[in-house]
Design brief:
There is one protein chain. The chain is of the alpha+beta class. The chain has helices spanning 2-16, 19-40, 44-78, 158-172, and strands spanning 87-94, 98-101, 103-112, 115-124, 126-129, 132-135, 137-141, 144-152, 179-183. It folds into 3 domains: 2-40; 45-97 and 142-185, ANL, C-terminal domain (GMP Synthetase, Chain A, domain 3), CATH 3.30.300; 99-141, no CATH class. The protein contains 4 helices and 9 strands; from the N terminus they run H-H-H-E-E-E-E-E-E-E-E-H-E. Strands 1-8-9 form a 3-stranded mixed β-sheet, with helices on one face. The protein has a two-stranded antiparallel sheet with strand order 2-7. It is elongated and about 100 Å long. It starts with a helix and ends with a strand.
Length: 185
């Protein structure tokens, strides 16, 4: 009973206060409701993040495929060198595959009396193929090879090791300091 009457008294006091206070209270409650709704409803940034993650994982997959292809090709070539024997190859790469898209560059110049301003606009070129619009890829930059380790049966022989070092350095266009040749157990 006492609780009910206490509530009624507070309600009467609330009704007696000025309209400003009521308005502030209503706006505050509306703000809290909007905050709760923004947490419940998915935002576009969440979709953008998931597409970026997918794009990044695709790029990492391509980098991994590129790395494995290089390892396979090196293994095939090195096993042909006299004295190398059976070998294992490990390639490390820096970064991921990067796509450079074709762009239309538009330049506009604005002369306003004493001032001149240039405005540049870039627009990615889109092509339609089979009813699907895709960006036109101008260049694909493969990941940079940062090191190679070769473990081979002839790795203990200095002459064989030197030939392997020279072959890998030439094939991948990397410094010999980034190549390690070791003897296989």
């Amino acid at each position: 009973m006492k609780l009910k009457s206490n509530f009624k008294e507070k309600l009467k006091i609330f009704k007696q206060k000025k309209m400003k206070t009521r308005l502030i209270m209503i706006l505050g409650i509306a703000g809290i409701v909007l905050i709760f709704l923004s947490e419940i409803l998915p935002s576009e940034t969440a979709k953008d993040k998931s597409s970026k993650i997918t794009e990044q994982s695709l790029s990492e997959d391509e980098s991994d495929t590129y790395k494995k292809r290089i390892e396979k090709e090196l293994k095939e070539v090195l096993s042909q060198i006299n004295g190398v024997g059976e070998c294992e190859v490990m390639v490390t790469v820096e970064g991921t595959t990067e796509y450079v898209y074709a762009e239309n560059l538009t330049k506009s110049e604005d002369n306003n009396g004493e001032r001149t301003s240039d405005k540049y606009e870039n627009e990615i070129v889109m092509v339609e193929e089979d009813g699907k619009k895709e960006a036109l890829v101008r260049k694909i930059i493969k990941p940079k090879i940062s090191g190679v380790v070769i473990v081979c049966e002839g790795g203990g022989d200095i002459k064989v090791s030197e030939r392997v070092l020279k072959a890998v350095s030439t094939a991948l266009d990397i410094s010999s300091s980034k190549i390690c040749v070791e003897n296989k157990k």
